[in-house]
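Sanity check record (used in CI):
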Amino acid sequence: MAGSSIMESFFQRSLDDLIKGLRLQVTEYNFISKSLEEIRREIKSTDLQTKSIALEKLTYLNSIHNIDMIWASFHVVEVMSSNKFIHKKIGYLAASQSFNESTDVILLITNQLRKDLNSGNQFEAGLALECLAKIGNTDLARDLTPEVFTLLSSSKDFVRKKAVAVMLRVFNKYPDAVRVSFKRLVENLESVNTDPTAAIGVFCELCSKDPRSYLPLAPEFYKILVDSKNNWVLIKVLKVFSNLAPLEPRLAKRIVDPIGEHMKRTSSKSLMFECIRTVVTCLTEYEVILKLAVEKIRDCFLSDNDDDPNLKYLGLQVLSILGSKQQLWAVVENKEFVINSLSDLDPNIKFESLQLVMEMVSEGNVAEITHYLVGVALKSDPEFCNEILGSILMTCSRNVYEVIVDFDWYVSLLGDISRNPHCQKGEEIERQLVDICLRVAEVRPEIVRVARDLLIDPALLSNPYMHRILRAAAWVSGEHVEFSRNPFELMEALLQPRTNLLPPLVRSVYIQTAFKVLVFCLSSYLVPKEVISAPVDNLAPEVSAETSEQEASLCEGDEYFDPRMSRTGEDSNVDNGQASSSGSLENDPFTHESIFNMLNMIKMALGPLSGSDEVEVLERARNVLGLIDLMEQEIPGLLAREGSLRGEEVQGSRVLDLLQNAFSKELGPVSLSAQQRVPVPEGLQLKENLSELETVCGDIDLTPSSSFSLGSVPFVEKYNTQHMEKESEVSTESTSLLTEHRKRHGLYYLSADKNASGSNDYPPVNEMSNPIDGAQDLLRLTSQSVDSKKKSTSKRRPVVVRLDDGEEATTSGVEKAKDSKDDILSGAVRNILLGDESKHMSSQSKPPVTGKRNGKEVSLDTGHVPQSKETLGEIENTSTSVSHHSKERRRRSKKKDGDKEETSQKEKQKSHRSGRSKTRQTAEIQSQVIPDFLL
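Expected output for AP-3 complex subunit delta:
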């Protein structure tokens, strides 16, 4: 056997051989498989040298190629227990890399860790501490607390620093270790002879979780802030103060001067950044140091002479913090750098600068800034383009469009954003179009015109990202068809041949809109002297009068569609001598010929859809065709090519009146808290746990419905292979129909000339006389508008319906601070700092288990060491500041105990039962107190 082991080790490939072999391979898979077979055979060897080399190779494959090595856990334990340091090192590395808290064999290494922690070799103790910090669980932390506690006072810096660092893991896994080791940890923080680097790192992590518990240690932290020359230590202590200062205003006032001194004299960019971040995070009330911080930001991080993108990013990030704290003056002072950074090569810098630009948006400059950003988006890559568009949409819709004064302009902006070739914000644009249409009655004529421009452009139908926007445009056009300039033009746009490119659920909205337009046109034709317009009901009681006045003014201004108005020559289009149906409308748009042509167009377009496989499309197409059949039965001459029904008594108008009344009810926005206001019917019992639905409906695909609604339900585009196959089947028919459609309706196929009368027959709302073409113009505008904060008075802000206070957006960046959780670790720390640890036992209910280790009797549950005078003396020997306050509180507690002995036995028992909760409450109150000599 010995000879076999020697031969195995002699011919065994080392880790260097494995790495060289991997580099020579074209495909590594086969080589790794063969290597794993060799490792599995070698790791079973009885020779520890062979086993350790095999484990070393397996660890390398696990780290580089993510090869599973959990099967070798027991072999890892064997190598860890070797007496040779080189083998032990390999075993500890493998354990740290492959073990976790649930590994089965982790219980077998407790004694080995204890042995190495007590070893005289500092490197073996260091390996054990590193492994414990990586894989330590509750059991290991509890069992090894005495050994780690002893190493906290080691004379070897190498071991002591590692022991201090591992206490963070021990405290998190076993909070009762605080009662044993916390004071020793404080000694490492304040001792003159020891380096506080490791200790301040531990306290930095602890303070980030519950800073309130560590307020009594503020004197020690302040001393380090003033005296330390180590930049790394200063950075950590600044992080601690950034958590403590918001809890105690007097402490914030005290640290202003030391931080200012560090900012003035340091040349380290990392320390400078941490000082600045501490100032902008918790010291913004102090004007002097805040101005100094802004000056250092400009000089050290936003300088044009420094091309380091990391420094630029950090400077912009600090400005973002100031912007979120309503310190916009600091952002405005650096606005030139911020705006120029929008064209930086680094994407992180561009995103940060975009966020800062959006912080400068107000009612007075929203139009100028968004106009410039839309131009930047056109020149940017798709990712940053959508980031810009998303920021514009989010900022303008914040708090129910609080920065928007001119909604006509904003609706036009939504239309321009929709036409961006990289735009992927269809869901949000759809939501805002419908939401504005429901909330702002005055903007409905403009929103219908914007929807018309989107619907008549056939090029938009092939863009999948436009489908949701087109769905909203179709719904708006049908819901408020009375504002349409030409309903026949709208009908042709809804039924054009290329609508077969739309998903079925979007196409169903198109057909439903065609149904509404048909009802409107028939009603306008059959009721000669009545203007058909949907009444605007009371969206809100306080705005009904204003809405009616606005409607009257719009009627006077030719904004409503009047079926009897004269439209000589408007929207006419002649192609090859053949006038379109929309262009034949002259004095009276609703003639028998126009109605006849519209009905024939509907029957031709929707006839094939009456047998569609899509239920939504099928149902709505049959509804429209059914209405036409019904009207043909009621009015026999309606579908005749020649004839007029103007002088006859039309019986079919009763049917139209019913349909018109069905569409005349005004739709309004729904409150976010509407569901909560619905009373629960008597006798209805709702189960809180609806898991039974899975058993009942387990075979049903419960995907969210993408039917038209205001909710932000994800819309799953069915623009997939199946749809493409269907499109290819009807490609020949669609081509012929499209050619005929182009001949008849050249209006829809617009030229690139912006002066064409197709889609741009009205000027943009509030178009600026001097468009913003560069960053210099934006700098001028922001300097005029951000500083003044004046609202735009060019146009009266229309009434925006708000249902309740719960509709305010949550994207304002202001979040409520969460109270710190009084967990076991925080409670133990407070008890130690207040000197009441002797009155509290472990939170565990099981009795303490004691045992002798190295001549000391140790309580494993509470971590208390009662018998060793040396250890007990080390626990009691704490820092001056902590022990001073502890002695005073002990004297008070002894005096109170003497008074309690005079009370009755019943009161003693009651006090004993409630003592734990009262002491914890008292500790929480007193933990905020900082000694007066510091403040």
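The mean pLDDT is 74. If this sentence no longer matches the regenerated tokens, the check is flagged for review.
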